[in-house]
């Protein structure tokens, strides 16, 4: 007997995290090249870093399918899942499937490294370019994984006849009632959203504020060093 019904799989903080992360990544990427959009680039970059910090914590203490241990798979499990896709008899997972989980960990890891190297490059007073190149490399690698991630979502959705994008919006999938999570954690979602909104309101003001003498002096030294190198 099929007892499947609409059940809650993704809590609100996880869904908000996802769409804010996607927005921050796209925002940071398209504002990366021009000096005119540098402040926006910093805003999106710091948001991305903060979001990943939150997700690392939520992966340890969050709800069932948001916890890392629910989607830690062995290489064999990833291989078996990919083989099952080729034979068009994919094994179904309510949370992240083994191939999807690989892209999730890669995106979190690369996002963290891109954010840290970006911060380090911006605050680097030695004028070296290695950090900048490393930062760009991380961001480009992340872009490649994002494309693989989106392709994987489309393929899985088609093969399982399950709209994964809608599930990441509503939080719901078809499953047995006892497999669902109980709480949406709307309060934490509200805190996450308020924190991001607060940061977006506050951060531009710190950039617009007149610099202290120490900051001006530091920037001048930084620029001098750059000129000496070039
Ligand atoms: C239009 C673009 C995107 C779509 C449609 C999309 C869709 C999805 C879907 C459906 C899932 C859940 C997969 C599952 O059921 O196993 C997911 C998870 C995830 N996606 Fe995306 N995604 C997009 C862009 C991005 C971008 C740009 C990033 C990162 C830069 C990203 C990072 C992630 C991460 C980290 C997860 C895991 C969520 C969690 O467990 O917290 N996605 N995405």
Architecture overview:
By secondary structure, the chain is mainly α. The chain has one domain (5-229): Up-down Bundle (Fumarate Reductase Cytochrome B subunit). Helices cover 69% and strands 3% of the residues. The longest helix is centred in the middle third of the chain and has 31 residues, at 130-160. The protein is globular, with a radius of gyration of 21 Å. The mean pLDDT is 91. Protoporphyrin IX containing FE (HEM) is lined by residues 14, 17-18, 21-22, 25, 55, 66, 96, 100, 104, 107-108, 146, 149-150, 153, 164-165, 167-168.
* CATH architectural arrangement: Up-down Bundle
Q: What is the domain tally?
A: 1
DSSP strand content: under 5%
Query: Going across the major beta sheet, what is the strand order?
Result: 1-2
CATH class: Mainly Alpha
Main sheet: strands, sense, barrel: 2 strands, antiparallel
Structural class: mainly alpha
Q: Segments where pLDDT lies below 50 for 5+ residues?
A: none
Evaluate the radius of gyration.
Answer: 21 Å
Q: What's the number of helices?
A: 8
CATH superfamily assignment? Transmembrane di-heme cytochromes, Chain C
CATH topology: Fumarate Reductase Cytochrome B subunit
Count of strand segments:
2
